[in-house]
Protein backbone atom coordinates (compact mmCIF):
# COMPACT_ATOMS: atom_id res chain seq x y z
CA UNK A 1 0.00 0.00 0.00
CA UNK A 2 1.30 3.44 -0.88
CA UNK A 3 0.82 6.77 0.81
CA UNK A 4 -1.23 9.35 -1.01
CA UNK A 5 1.84 11.21 -2.32
CA UNK A 6 4.15 8.24 -2.79
CA UNK A 7 5.29 7.13 -6.23
CA UNK A 8 3.72 3.70 -6.93
CA UNK A 9 6.22 0.81 -6.82
CA UNK A 10 5.54 -0.21 -10.44
CA UNK A 11 6.32 3.32 -11.63
CA UNK A 12 9.38 3.58 -9.39
CA UNK A 13 10.79 0.41 -10.98
CA UNK A 14 10.65 2.17 -14.36
CA UNK A 15 12.20 5.38 -13.03
CA UNK A 16 14.99 3.91 -10.89
CA UNK A 17 17.28 2.86 -13.80
CA UNK A 18 17.29 6.45 -15.07
CA UNK A 19 18.94 7.80 -11.92
CA UNK A 20 22.74 7.52 -11.71
CA UNK A 21 24.21 5.66 -8.75
CA UNK A 22 26.14 7.81 -6.29
CA UNK A 23 29.05 6.32 -4.38
CA UNK A 24 29.07 6.95 -0.63
CA UNK A 25 31.48 9.60 0.53
CA UNK A 26 34.74 8.13 1.87
CA UNK A 27 34.50 10.70 4.66
CA UNK A 28 31.38 9.04 6.03
CA UNK A 29 28.68 11.31 7.34
CA UNK A 30 24.94 11.14 7.41
CA UNK A 31 23.26 8.27 5.54
CA UNK A 32 21.99 9.35 2.13
CA UNK A 33 18.23 9.69 1.64
CA UNK A 34 17.19 7.16 -0.99
CA UNK A 35 16.41 8.41 -4.47
CA UNK A 36 12.89 7.03 -4.10
CA UNK A 37 12.31 9.02 -0.91
CA UNK A 38 13.77 12.16 -2.50
CA UNK A 39 11.51 11.78 -5.54
CA UNK A 40 8.50 11.36 -3.27
CA UNK A 41 9.47 14.60 -1.51
CA UNK A 42 9.95 16.43 -4.82
CA UNK A 43 6.55 15.28 -6.07
CA UNK A 44 4.95 16.32 -2.77
CA UNK A 45 6.38 19.84 -3.02
CA UNK A 46 5.37 20.17 -6.67
CA UNK A 47 1.85 18.86 -6.07
CA UNK A 48 1.13 20.94 -2.98
CA UNK A 49 2.99 24.12 -3.94
CA UNK A 50 4.62 24.41 -0.51
CA UNK A 51 8.07 25.90 -0.05
CA UNK A 52 10.95 23.42 0.02
CA UNK A 53 11.72 24.24 3.65
CA UNK A 54 8.12 23.40 4.59
CA UNK A 55 8.34 19.76 3.47
CA UNK A 56 6.95 17.83 6.47
CA UNK A 57 9.61 15.64 8.10
CA UNK A 58 6.85 13.19 9.10
CA UNK A 59 6.70 12.04 5.48
CA UNK A 60 10.17 10.54 5.82
CA UNK A 61 11.34 11.87 2.45
CA UNK A 62 14.30 13.84 3.76
CA UNK A 63 14.49 17.59 4.20
CA UNK A 64 13.25 20.07 1.66
CA UNK A 65 16.86 21.08 1.02
CA UNK A 66 17.83 17.46 0.35
CA UNK A 67 14.97 17.07 -2.12
CA UNK A 68 15.78 20.39 -3.79
CA UNK A 69 19.45 19.43 -4.19
CA UNK A 70 18.50 16.07 -5.66
CA UNK A 71 16.17 17.81 -8.14
CA UNK A 72 18.97 20.25 -9.05
CA UNK A 73 21.50 17.45 -9.53
CA UNK A 74 19.10 15.37 -11.60
CA UNK A 75 18.28 18.37 -13.77
CA UNK A 76 21.99 19.05 -14.36
CA UNK A 77 22.55 15.40 -15.33
CA UNK A 78 19.58 15.19 -17.70
CA UNK A 79 17.76 12.76 -15.42
CA UNK A 80 14.69 14.95 -15.06
CA UNK A 81 14.13 15.06 -18.83
CA UNK A 82 14.38 11.25 -19.12
CA UNK A 83 12.17 10.82 -16.05
CA UNK A 84 9.62 13.19 -17.57
CA UNK A 85 9.49 11.08 -20.74
CA UNK A 86 8.81 7.93 -18.70
CA UNK A 87 6.07 9.68 -16.74
CA UNK A 88 4.40 10.93 -19.90
CA UNK A 89 4.49 7.47 -21.45
CA UNK A 90 3.38 5.67 -18.30
CA UNK A 91 0.74 7.62 -16.47
CA UNK A 92 -1.73 10.29 -17.53
CA UNK A 93 -1.93 11.53 -13.91
CA UNK A 94 1.49 13.17 -14.25
From TrEMBL:
InterPro entries: IS402-like_dom (IPR025161), Transposase_6_like (IPR052909). Residues 10-84 form the Insertion element IS402-like domain. Coiled coil: none annotated. This is Transposase.
Amino acid sequence: MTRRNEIPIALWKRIEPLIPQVKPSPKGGRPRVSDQQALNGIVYVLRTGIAWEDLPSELGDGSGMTCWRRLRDWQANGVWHRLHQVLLATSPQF
